[in-house]
Design a protein that fits this description.
Length: 227
């Protein structure tokens, strides 16, 4: 099976659904904390690469060292026209018109979860990369016709191309988000968190196959704090 954005979104959306239904406000707090932790780990790995390569921790390096690319299946579905970078001085912004995470959460009837996820995700990735960079999500596709992401003092004419050698497959990203959400859920909810995480994996196996779920488990000893 090909791991794509949709499988990645399915995992966080399923955690959201079970945490909200089972634990209310406490469950939502777990979801937010897990989202932030997952995102900060991604940003930190990018920062580690930048420092190793002698690159400054600015927005140019942030984009160049991004760890994933859109899947071919998604780009084909939107004819490659999913976002637009709007340069400006000193601030710039990114408009996003199509998003696989939006599509997956919507298909699962969980737009409220998508709003919460996107409220925290990108800001936390940037924070993990460099907490002094200023980034905010002004609006999302879940509530309007597009996402608007603002980059303070970016001063970039265009978004740099990603360095392909540092891009990780979506299998890795799916495993990362599953294990990080699971870790936070187990820490806060103890045995209940273990049961909830196991049920998320069961749902993933039902949707995408037992072998695909087992691939996620194979990353259980991976240290996602380092690249």
């Amino acid at each position: 099976m090909e791991y794509t954005e949709r499988q990645h979104a399915f995992i966080s959306a399923t955690f959201y659904k079970k945490l909200k239904e089972g634990y209310g406000e406490k469950g939502l707090a777990v979801f937010v904390l897990a989202t932030q932790r997952y995102a900060e780990q991604r940003g930190s790995r990018m920062a580690q690469k930048a420092i190793m390569l002698g690159m400054p921790l600015n927005f140019e390096s942030y984009f160049a060292l991004g760890e994933w690319n859109y899947s071919e299946s998604f780009l084909k579905s939107v004819n490659g026209k999913n976002s637009k970078y709007i340069s400006g001085s000193p601030d710039s912004c990114i408009n996003v018109f199509a998003c696989a995470w939006h599509e997956q959460y919507k298909a699962m009837g969980l737009i409220d979860g998508a709003i919460l996820y996107c409220r925290h995700l990108d800001m936390a990735i940037v924070r993990g990369f460099n907490p002094y960079l200023k980034f905010r999500v002004k609006q999302t596709l879940h509530e309007t016709d597009k996402c608007v992401q603002e980059l303070k003092d970016a001063n970039l004419e265009s978004i740099p191309k990603k360095l392909k050698e540092w891009i990780k497959p979506f299998e890795y990203h799916c495993a990362h988000i599953y294990h990080t959400y699971s870790e936070i859920a187990k820490s806060v909810l103890k045995t209940n968190g273990e049961e909830l995480s196991a049920s998320v994996l069961e749902d993933f196996a039902k949707e995408y196959g037992k072998e695909s779920a087992e691939r996620l488990i194979s990353y259980k000893d991976t240290n996602f704090n380092v690249f």
